Amino acid sequence: MNVQWYPGHMTKAKRMMQEDIKLIDLIVELVDARVPLSSRNPDIDELGRNKSRLILLNKSDLSDERRNREWENYFKEKGFYVYPVNARSGAGLKAVNGLIQEACKEKIERDRKRGIKNRPIRAMIVGIPNVGKSTFINSFAGKACTKTGNKPGVTKGKQWIRLNKGVELLDTPGILWPKFEDQEVGIRLAMIGSIKDDILNLDELSLRLIGYLREEYPGILSERYQIEEEGSDLEILESIARSRHCLLKGQELDYSKAAGILLDEFRNGKIGRITLECPPDPKKSLDQEKG
Question: For the chain, how far is it from start to end, CA to CA, in angstroms?
Fold first, then answer.
């Protein structure tokens, strides 16, 4: 399964970010807590060198709580400020303003020494499509100041948003890198809905999800769909189709409908709190570098 998606406006957005990065003090990066590494754009690290960094693990209500803690520790060890949030419900957002001030304390101190008072911190909001940037900004600012949608690619241009006397946010369109070097990254992003479904093979994607859930969260499909988790991944999909009465004419099973139900219910958190990747083992990374 080969997943690639890079709309033309993203190339333009990356050029805009290269220009705008000079104007800001802090990069606030939203990632999806279910795939914290796969939902990061490696370009951001290159673009944001020498800038303060805050990573927000958004949709943390949908992800595995134990894994959330592991990912927090992982990013903190790399020098980022990090915090789990749920932009839709507003959970965790009260802490963000304090984190922004903490992340920019050196800049605030430099301003104070130069006699500059009350200059707002300028923060750039970045993240790949459908990670929840617009919802976050609307919730954080307390008003609907950006267009939102639950499909990738809604934010097409940049806009400054004054949050309060102390913080201004620069919203940017979601950016995906042009090519996934690791196809597993593309598949994980497809699973959470960051890539348009109409270019994907959803039947195959659902089988990949079933395989992962059976290995990492045994019993979770059995509980949700009242089925036995036995046989192949395809047989599990068949059982889900029967359980949800996904039938074509002549009582033939409708695999595509069952695949759609499975993916929707995973994305909406109805199956349970699931994280699709674990933090890399630092020892392994070290061994690979030595090798």
Answer: 30
